[in-house]
Write a structure and sequence with these properties.
The chain is α/β, with parallel strands linked by helices. Helix content is 44%, strand content 15%.
């Protein structure tokens, strides 16, 4: 029976152009023969966990994942774990308010030191815009400016940044476009960093779930904004909460305002996160599809522009890994070797996924009633 399992896995990988113990950069080198049984039983979760445990090696992990996804191999291996996870999502609500701060605690609060070593100088943790950029810093500045131009920012405008991260957009928009920015995030580490990073500018950073925005209302501030932006946060909302999220955004947007949503997107409508990512990287998360976003904005917004530059996420993730790997010796005192393998798997498998165009990156511009003279976009 064991021999049969090994042959099944070998055949599946061979159909993706991957040879067990072969000479190629994407060929898996097996260190523990229990690998075959684990992968068949646990699917993508087993593949990732067995890599973390050192059961296999590969020269180019990103290329391996690209080949697996490009051949739709994941559809041929449906594990028990995937079914159990889906059942849990359907019965519960991972994106509910009581769980809102879990992603901050488990991911974004891992340590500002690590993210500083991995990201660009502005600490922007989302896809760069590489159209005319030569390096990571240029790609992220180009992305921030692209957002500002798509929103047609003007001096004196009030802007809300939902999921503001370490304050990269808040500072850039305030410095370069003269706007007032309110940033909210569920990460304590990000609040501390962003508050210091944006000091002296017309920027305020709050530790807050998007559903609690009304708690910031005062007699002087009705909490209506000319522009609202959300970059890399919608992935943590959860499909059961998409309508609520869009309703909250609409509630806080002025009648002639614009909302830009920057999110990773799925090619198909699913209701559960990828099991390995859910367990180790992004708990309570979910990648939306076009259909799911469409359903959430129906009767609330007019879709003005939909821009896909998901192919650029491959380059962004490879740049992040290069930085992380190069600086590992300075970071390892705060993390163990299993964390290194976990983070390497996360970054490189994600790069392979975007390379296969298995997932996308969308910037969507929405208005309440439509821009009457016609919306003019930028690329």
């Amino acid at each position: 029976m064991k021999k049969g399992i090994e042959e099944i896995v070998k055949s599946l990988l061979s159909s993706a152009g991957v040879i067990i113990n072969g000479p190629g950069d994407a060929d898996i080198q097996i260190k523990n023969n229990d690998f075959y049984k684990r992968v068949l039983r646990d699917g993508s979760l087993g593949l990732g966990e067995s890599y973390m445990d050192g059961w296999w090696e590969v020269k180019k992990l990103d290329e391996l994942i690209y080949r697996i996804l490009n051949s739709s191999l994941e559809d041929k291996v449906k594990s028990v774990n995937t079914f159990v996870q889906l059942l849990g999502v359907l019965l519960l609500n991972p994106g509910k308010k009581s769980k809102a701060f879990e992603i901050g605690e488990r991911h974004y609060d891992l340590g500002n030191d690590m993210f500083q070593k991995m990201l660009d100088k502005r600490m922007v943790y989302s896809c760069g815009y590489w159209k005319d950029a030569q390096n990571l810093n240029e790609s992220q500045e180009a992305k921030l400016d692209l957002i500002c131009r798509k929103l047609n920012l003007k001096s004196g405008m009030k802007v809300l940044d939902i999921g503001c991260g370490w304050g990269g957009f808040c500072r850039y928009a305030a410095e370069n476009y003269g706007v007032e920015v309110l940033g909210v995030t569920v990460s304590k580490e990000q609040v501390d960093y962003a508050s210091e990073y944006c000091k002296g500018l017309n920027v305020k950073i709050n530790l807050l779930d998007y559903r609690d925005l009304n708690s910031l209302k005062t007699a002087e501030n009705d909490l209506l904004f000319d522009r609202i932006v959300s970059v890399g946060m919608f992935e943590h909302v959860g499909f059961k909460n998409y309508k609520t999220y869009m309703t909250v955004v609409r509630q806080h947007l002025k009648e002639d305002g614009l909302f830009l949503l920057h999110t990773i997107g799925s090619n198909k409508s699913v209701k559960a996160n990828e099991p390995w990512s859910e367990k180790y990287i992004f708990p309570n998360s979910h990648l939306p599809s076009i259909k799911q976003i469409g359903g959430a904005i129906e009767n609330l917004f007019v879709m003005e522009d939909w821009h896909n530059f998901g192919a650029y996420y491959d380059k962004t993730l490879m740049a992040w890994f290069e930085n992380f790997d190069r600086n590992w010796d300075e970071l390892r005192s705060n993390y163990d070797d299993r964390f290194y393998r976990m983070w390497k798997y996360y970054l490189l498998s994600s790069a392979g996924s975007f390379r296969a165009r298995n997932v996308q990156l969308w910037q969507i511009v929405l208005s309440k009633k439509g821009v009457h003279t016609g919306y003019q976009s930028f690329r």
